[in-house]
Design a protein that fits this description.
The protein has three domains: 136 residues, Response regulator (Rossmann fold, 3-Layer(aba) Sandwich), CATH 3.40.50; 245 residues, Alpha-Beta Horseshoe (pyruvate-formate lyase- activating enzyme), CATH 3.80.30; 59 residues, OB fold (Dihydrolipoamide Acetyltransferase, E2P). The chain has 15 helices and 23 strands. A hairpin with a 2-residue loop joins strand 1 and strand 2. Helix 7 runs parallel beside helix 9 and helix 13 runs parallel beside helix 15. The relative contact order is 0.08. It binds S-adenosyl-L-homocysteine and FE3-S4 cluster (F3S). The site of FE3-S4 cluster has 10 residues, from helix 6. One of its GO terms (cellular component) is cytosol. InterPro entries: Elp3/MiaA/NifB-like_rSAM, Methylthiotransferase, Methylthiotransferase_CS, Methylthiotransferase_N, Methylthiotransferase_N_sf, MiaB_methiolase, NA-bd_OB-fold, rSAM. Catalyzes the methylthiolation of N6-(dimethylallyl)adenosine (i(6)A), leading to the formation of 2-methylthio-N6-(dimethylallyl)adenosine (ms(2)i(6)A) at position 37 in tRNAs that read codons beginning with uridine.
Length: 481
Amino acid sequence: MEKVIDEKKQGTKLVMDTVAGNTKKLFIESYGCQMNFSDSEIVASILSENGYNTTNQLEEADLVLVNTCSIRDKAEQTVRKRLEKYNAVKKTINPSMKVGVLGCMAERLKNKFLEEEKIVDLVVGPDAYKDLPNLLSEVEEGRNAINVILSKEETYGDISPVRLQSNGVTAFVSITRGCDNMCTFCVVPFTRGRERSRDPQSILEEVNDLAAKGFKEITLLGQNVDSYLWYGGGLKKDFDKASEMQKATATNFAGLLSLVAEAQPKMRIRFSTSNPQDMTMDVIETMARYQNICNYIHLPVQSGSTRVLKEMNRQHTREEYIQLIDNIKSIIPDCGISQDIIAGFPTETEEDHQDTLSLMDYVKYDFGFMFMYSERPGTLAARKLEDDIPEAIKKRRLQEIVEIQQKHSAYRTQQFVGKTMEVLIEKTSKRDDNQWSGRIPQNTVVVFPKENYKVGDFVMVKITDCTSATLMGEAVGYSKE
Ligand code: SAH
Ligand code: F3S
């Protein structure tokens, strides 16, 4: 069978060119985290083997799939609006169209979509995509279909994802699925199940394959990558029951990083997300040892108050987090660091909020992702704590956090002005067709005149100016072949 040739992303719709012989049309959209986008590539790969080509025209689709996010109420509302839109098209233009919900909302709401709401034909949880061909035959025979069973094994290690949203330069490679941390605000452990790691050999195969196809940068993906542990398969929580032999030959995250960095020394290696409680000195030292592991860590803190961290069931204090930042900066002085912070978690006082602001002042993050607390049904926080911070206060605190972050981002980008940094070119700048856009190892975006360089080149760029989010500069030559 002819394989995918040119792949492109259009908005959040994922499109690839046609596979010869396929007659059915799939419209697939993704919301939420990078893992969802990565999973949609797996889904498209499975369905391309089963007669489907992707389309970006909703109206002509035989099958519409939406890969959904439950992390905050707003994310679910966005998906609901899309479902209304699909149903309007179904009623007016395309009555034979089938609609399926994938991902975290499928897992969280299960049968509700089919029984109470009657708005979809198919509900498939994040571990059940291999069952899609079976589920679709049921749908074609006129029955609704559902599979929301969560798995104990890494689920898709043997499927080679089609790179739907690809620039041909950067790609995501998933290394763990699920999460065992049970942060009290978070719905992920319920929607994505228990934590399990993927066989390092299968990870290496995917990375080598990407390198052979010309990709220059990979991001190892997991809810909590530092907790990666391969001991021959099975859940992380069952590691204690493993044999002595399995324990002695297990691979942890630092081990996996070295394997990947050594396998492809010319590729940039990134990873996301790190949980402070699991990030070891070993990982930091491994980052320092390999030049091709990018000096950048996304290190969500959620709150700067030890009391709130405890309520959130984060397994570290403010002081331990600061110690970790100090360790990172002493071993990798130029390491870029970013944050996730939640404003207005239940019981958060003005003093707790000030602790968050002062922690930010200490770290001076390069950038961050900041959210108002959104109560999620079924989580420990929803069951045990009243959502007691008024909306107006949540908003004001979030605004203060965002403002401080903007100040710090501007401070960080300013530090690069005058320096010459390595940039991997990813695409044409959104604002100017004559400029390239790429990133430095610390993950900050750089734009600079195209000259004769091309997408995928590693270029040394002299930084001449900046905003709080973007560096501007001029290329001074190639960095490596
Ligand atoms: N470990 C995960 C975290 C997933 S959720 C990862 O790989 O990124 C991403 C971020 O969403 C969290 O770090 C947290 O800051 C935010 N978040 C999660 N649940 C939330 C909630 N109920 N309300 C507001 N923000 C939330
Ligand atoms: Fe959620 Fe905490 Fe895991 S934020 S994904 S439960 S590390």
